[in-house]
Amino acid sequence: MAMSRNALVSLSAAACNSCGRSTTRRTMPKPTESEIENRFRYHPPKTDSRRAKHNTVTEECLALAKKLRDVCPEGRGLATALTKLEEARMWANQSLACDSPTDE
C-alpha cells in the first residue's frame, strides 16, 4: 500500500533566510522517478465508463461556469471563481485518470 505524500511531510526548525528569526519549515522528499512519470504522462481513459465519468465532470463544471457567468458581476471575483472551477475540473479529472484503480 502506497503511503500518502502528506504522511511524508516533516517539520524542522530553521532560521528565516530574510530576517534570521526561528521558523518551522515543512519539508517533503523529492518525488521518485515513477511519481514524476505518473504526474506528467497523459492518462487517457481506457473504458467507456471512465470516459463517461470524465464527461460528467466536464459537463457539470461547464454548467456551473455558465451559471456563475450569468449570476455574478464581471470583475476579479468572477474571474477567480472561473479559474478555480477550471482548476477543480482539472483535479477531478486527474483523480479519475491517476487515482482510480478500477471503473467502479
List its traits.
mainly alpha
What's the short story on this structure?
54% of the residues lie in helices and 12% in strands. The protein is mainly alpha-helical and 104 residues long.
Draw up the topology in text.
Layout lengths: L9 E6 L6 E6 L5 H8 L7 H24 L4 H24 L5
Antiparallel strand pairs: 1-2
Report on this model:
This protein is mainly alpha-helical. It has one domain (9-99). Helices cover 54% and strands 12% of the residues. The chain has 3 helices and 2 strands. It has helices spanning 33-40, 48-71, 76-99; strands at 10-15, 22-27. The protein has a two-stranded antiparallel sheet. Strand 1 (10-15) and strand 2 (22-27) form a beta hairpin. Helix 2 runs antiparallel to helix 3 (76-99). The mean pLDDT is 83.
Roughly how many Å apart are the termini?
A: 19 Å
Q: What is the β-strand count? A: 2
The arrangement of helices and strands along the chain is EEHHH
SS strand fraction: 5-15%
Spans where pLDDT lies below 50 across 5 or more residues: none
Derived structural class: mainly alpha
Main sheet: strands, sense, barrel: 2 strands, antiparallel
Shape: flat
How many structural domains can be distinguished in the coordinates? 1
Number of helices: 3
Mean pLDDT: 83
Largest sheet strand order: 1-2
Tell me the radius of gyration.
20 Å
**Helical residue percent band:** 40-55%
